[in-house]
Amino acid sequence: MRLQGKVALITGAGSGIGRATALRFAAEGAQSVAVDIADSVAETVAEVQAASGDAIAVHADVSAESDVAAAFSRAEQHYGGLDVAFNNAGIMLDDDTDAVATADDTIDRTFDVNVKGVLYGCKYAVEAMRRRGGGSIINTASFVASVGAATPQIAYTASKGAVLSLTRELAVVHARESIRVNALSPGPLRTELLMSFLDTPEKRQRRLVHVPMGRFGEAEEMASAALFLASDDASYMTGANLQVDGGLTAAYVTPE
Ligand code: NAD
């Protein structure tokens, strides 16, 4: 029960990492506000409640500042404060390729959700955590912020680099307010986001050859890492980039 008595807000909670984290946080005693633009967030909350957990659903588009403000305000009103913010919602658009071919509106939409969405989440989390006397913010970046891919999604990659740098700066600025800010960088996962993109065995194998562990990660493995960063187990950790990627970013030559 590492989050007993804590209130957590999780964006992108309707699917993948966010859904798995909402379930895990609830199992560890948290009261959670599950936020998503998609209706599936109601299913996540129903699953949490079916397992005797405590959560509410909020529909919000993280790229709209007023939606984010309303979601954080709901958390404080309903549960009396906020201890953990997991700014996890993100998109990777189909027509995001290289610098020459990627359309301007694809770049804008990607940055609106992946960068401004995270920044808004940090802004309202900091305000709520100041009222609480501290807290833990976790921003989902990606392994692509640290290594280049010859199969590019240039807007997505750049947006995740921005998540890492804004996380570091926020961590330093708010360190003496007991607000910790860390990034979680997942490796390639067996979630809907990536599997719908890697839709043939050949495409999947092209990626797996670069992962020392030789498999995709699971959303639940990211939830475990988010739990660590959210909990007091990570009490001396801020400004870090926790890479949970099967060894991908450590590798030059992988095992046969
Ligand atoms: P997913 O597509 O399964 O879930 C993402 C969720 O975010 C969805 O429920 C979606 O509705 C929601 N969302 C999208 N735009 C939103 C918006 N504007 N407002 C609110 N909610 C919005 O993906 P996932 O794999 O769980 O990804 C979660 C995070 O992890 C993302 O930031 C993604 O970039 C990152 N990530 C994923 C992988 C991977 O391999 N899946 C790898 C590295 C990083």
Short synopsis of the structure:
The protein is an alpha/beta fold. The protein contains eight helices and seven strands; from the N terminus they run E-H-E-H-E-H-E-H-E-H-E-H-H-H-E.
Structural class of the helix and strand makeup? alpha/beta
End-to-end Cα distance: 40 Å
CATH topology: Rossmann fold
The proportion of residues in beta strands is: 15-25%
How many individual β-strands?
7
Mean pLDDT level: 97
CATH class: Alpha Beta
Description:
The protein has one domain: NAD(P)-binding Rossmann-like Domain (Rossmann fold). Strand 5, helix 5 (154-173) and strand 6 form a beta-alpha-beta unit. The protein is 43% helix and 15% strand. The chain has 8 helices and 7 strands. The mean pLDDT is 97. With 256 residues, the protein is α/β, with parallel strands linked by helices. The longest helix has 29 residues, at 104-132. The protein has a 7-stranded parallel beta sheet with strand order 3-2-1-4-5-6-7, with helices on both faces. Bound molecules: nicotinamide-adenine-dinucleotide (NAD). Nicotinamide-adenine-dinucleotide (NAD) binds at residues 11-12, 14-18, 36-38, 60-63, 88-91, 113, 117, 140, 142, 186, 188-189, 191-194, 219.
